[in-house]
Amino acid sequence: MKRRIFTAEHDAFRETVRTFLTKEVLPHYEQWEKDGIVSRDAWLAAGRQGLLGIAVPEEYGGGGNDDFRYAAVLAEEFTRAGAAGLAIGLHNDVIGPYLNSLATDEQKRRWLPGFCSGEIVTAIAMTEPGAGSDLQGVRTTAVDRGDHWLLNGSKTFISNGILADLVIVVAKTTPEGGAHGLSLLVVERGTAGFERGRNLDKIGQKAQDTAELFFHDVKVPKENLLGEENGGFVHLMRNLAQERMTIAVAGIAAAEHLLEITTAYVKEREAFGRPISRLQHIRFEIAEMATECAVTRAFLDRCITEHASGGLDAVHASMAKWWATELQKRVADRCLQLHGGYGYMAEYPVARAFTDGRIQTIYGGTTEIMKEIIGRSLLS
Questions:
Q1: From the CA atom positions of the chain, what is the Rg in Å?
Q2: Which of 77, 212, 243, 285 is flagged as catalytic?
Q3: Does 243 qualify as catalytic in the annotation?
Q4: Does the predicted TM-score (pTM) go above 0.70?
Q5: Which ranges in 269-313 belong to alpha helices (H)?
Q6: What does DSSP assign to residue 94?
Q7: pLDDT in tens, 42-99
Q8: Using an 8 Å Cβ cutoff, are 184 and 170 in contact?
Q9: Which long-range contacts (CB under 8 A, 24 or more apart) does 61-70 make?
Q10: Phi, psi (deg, nearest 5) at residue 6
């Protein structure tokens, strides 16, 4: 079915993104995977091309357009290109809303121009070794010392952790407050006591730096509090719907692309003297995946439209994230199987898509958490 959610402006933007990927990303991607990190030049190139800070007001160097459909285009094209390492979606769609909605005018002047140019790479430090999706289990603390916060603790699985110049840290500022005693503090590169651990060795997304972060008696200036003191939980919940939608958009785009390349493959691959596409089992596999993708695409496009107009709630974002990423996982597994032994070879796109995509059902809230959110909304 023809998609009807994009305008000519979105189509033109899609071509810009494809050109950027062809010129600035794909020629270098193999080396980035070997290095375990993306070149800073790519971030600067993305800034020059206008791909960073699309929703940031123009006065700070951004695009001044908060239409989520542009974010969807970026997610779709980066996914199709297999370029998960350059985490523009994290920068724009996860961290950007915190800075746009919570930062003071002074903070915006300090951080947003670099955010848009690519000179400031960002990360958010929420997950801890002993607390994954459980915000009440956060042990990182920030104690009020008058003119600064004294920050102590550690974080793990932090995307952009090595490259990040600006990290939004979730810390407990009122110990007895539980999840409602959390605040968001911005820690900048070079701050004394802020150290980075290993660039973690993952099974996929090798070009994306994912790190451990350590904070030992870090003095965070009071002017680096983002949003309200003890308001961190509310701020986090408010922005999670967009994060989950971005992941969901990538999920259905990945499934569709895998189906596309696998359909082409089974038409060419021969076994027993004929293309395997003539085998009924293969046709049934393709038919099932194509139908699942078509149904999911209809729901995801509806969610994209709703979110672009400000009408998507957390429950439907959770539905989208759960369903699209689990579909991606199933399709990746089935498509790899249809490639046979070649599917297990790293040089084949299906192999990298299989390992790169496995994290999708985990980060941004696991599938199990998504089901809990949905079930609670229906049964409470």
A1: 21
A2: 243
A3: yes
A4: yes
A5: 280-308
A6: I
A7: 999 999 999 999 999 999 999 999 999 999 999 999 999 999 999 999 999 999 999 9
A8: yes
A9: 61/112, 61/113, 61/116, 61/117, 62/112, 62/115, 62/116, 67/308, 68/242, 68/245, 68/304, 68/307, 68/308, 69/5, 69/6, 69/10, 69/304, 69/308, 70/10, 70/13
A10: -110, 150
